[in-house]
Amino acid sequence: MWTLFNTFLRIGLFTIGGGYAMIPLIEQKVVDEHRWMTRDDLLDLIAVAQSCPGIFAVNIGIFVGYKLRGIRGALITTLGTVLPSFVIILSIALLFQQFRDNIYVERAFKGIRPAVVALIAAPVFRMARMAKINRYNVWIPVVAALLIWLMGVSPIYVILVAGIGGYIYGEIENENKLNKTS
Amino acid sequence: MLAYFILLFWTFLQIGLFGFGGGYAMLSMIQGEVVTHHHWMTMGQFTDIVAISQMTPGPIGINCATYVGYTSLVNAGYAPIWGVLGSLVATFAVVLPSLILMIIISRFLMAYRHHPRVEQVFSFLRPAVVGLLAAAALCLMTAENFSTPRESPWQFWVSVLLFLFAFISNRVYKLNPIRIILLCALAGIVLM
User: Fold this and answer.
1) A85, A117, B110, B188: least buried by Cβ within 10 Å?
2) B61 touches chain A (CB under 8 A)
């Protein structure tokens, strides 16, 4: 149990820059070092965790923890993954409160803000390739982005409608295929 | 005050439940709820939080939830200790749906993930997540983050240059985001 906690504490602590940077580390710890599962099993888990809502690293942790030790295992790995973030961010938040009005900190953040926007914009095209965007479905991301950006629609509704829309569209397609064949 | 915590919990529960597509896509949702909908902080403050979440260890979604939970309480005029409780509530709420869903999925749904009906749902959902990410970037292109040519031409054009630098160095040269942020911080101190 302690090893499980400790492993995911490290995964939470040593990955900077979010989700996908964690995969090699998780692979090394879970497959090579502790032999908790095979590489194929882990790849399957990663595929499922990616298509699930929530934080990727936490999802993986829950899967691994639950597989090994049931619900207690899942709770332990979640705590392990979340704890480093929690402690570090809170320390920074408490400190930043005092330094925010410092002229140099203020200037530094004036320079950082455009970079943050660029770092969020940069993965859009990579994600588009991964989501297999083509000329038939390109309207979906465009409409989604415009609704959120210009109309102020909540992204939560966009996700809900997209999921339901995809389901209904698939059903209509199936119906058409059936009609053609019969 | 209790109402505030319940609202915070409810908001992050939804974010955890509908946050498909990983940390960056989740940022769009946090931004939509926290800045646009509830006005718990300004777009500039949110951008700073994202910057710090990117630079510090840990999943960006958790970092951001923790920081937003703290900041929204402090912004509302409560003492920092309530802010700490706020970040506890936000982090717990964002993780809770994962905990429940993942356990259900690993028990029952692993077998169904290639089921045509599941694929149908994702055929629209995956492209929509790309739109979410694009919207997150577009929503952040504000006067607070870039200034305007009229308000401060110097800051505006330096900001545009830093944006282009960060975008190109990340996409083309695969420069590490932490280095990019540090370089831009340095540029900000020298130029702004």
Assistant:
1) B110
2) yes
B183 domain residue, yes or no = no
The string of pLDDT tens digits covering residues A25-34 is: 788 888 888 8
- A 104-143 residues inside an 8 A Cβ radius of B: 104, 107-125, 127-128, 130-133, 137-138, 140-143
Specify if B30 maps to a domain.
Answer: yes
CA distance A83 to A89: 10
Which of A74, A84, A141 has its CB closest to that of B131? A141
How many independent structural domains does chain B possess? 1
Q: pLDDT exceeding 70 applies to what percent of chain A?
A: 95
Q: Which residues pair with A16 in a beta bridge?
A: B57
Low-confidence residues in chain B, pLDDT < 70:
109-111, 113
B34 domain residue, yes or no: yes
Q: A with B: how many residue pairs have Cβ under 8 Å apart?
A: 374
Task: Answer for the pair B130, A162: CB distance below 8 angstroms, yes or no.
Answer: no
Task: Print the domain residue range for B73.
Answer: 2-123
Give residue limits of the domains in chain A: 2-99, 122-181
Within-domain flag for B25: yes
Residue A67: predicted pLDDT: 86
Residue A29 DSSP one-character state: I
What are the pLDDT digits (tens) for A75-129? 999 999 999 989 999 999 988 877 777 889 889 989 999 998 998 888 888 778 8
Give the model confidence (pLDDT) of B24-52 as tens digits: 778 889 999 999 999 999 999 999 999 99
pLDDT of res. B105: 83
Question: What is the torsion angle, in degrees rounded to the nearest 10, for the CA atoms of residue A74, residue A80, residue A82 and residue A86?
Answer: 150
* Measured CA angle at A152 (ends A148, A157), to 5 deg: 60
Q: Does A44 touch chain B (CB under 8 A)?
A: yes
Query: How confident is the model at residue A15, as a pLDDT?
Result: 67
Decide if B185 and A154 are in contact by the 8 Å CB cutoff.
no
Q: What's the whole-number average pLDDT of chain A?
A: 86
Cα–Cα–Cα angle for B100, B101, B105, rounded to 5 degrees: 125
Question: Is B7 touching A (CB cutoff 8 A)?
Answer: no
Q: Does residue A80 sit at the B interface (CB-CB below 8 Å)?
A: no
Q: Determine, for residues B103 and A71 on separate chains, whether the beta-carbon distance falls below 8 Å.
A: yes
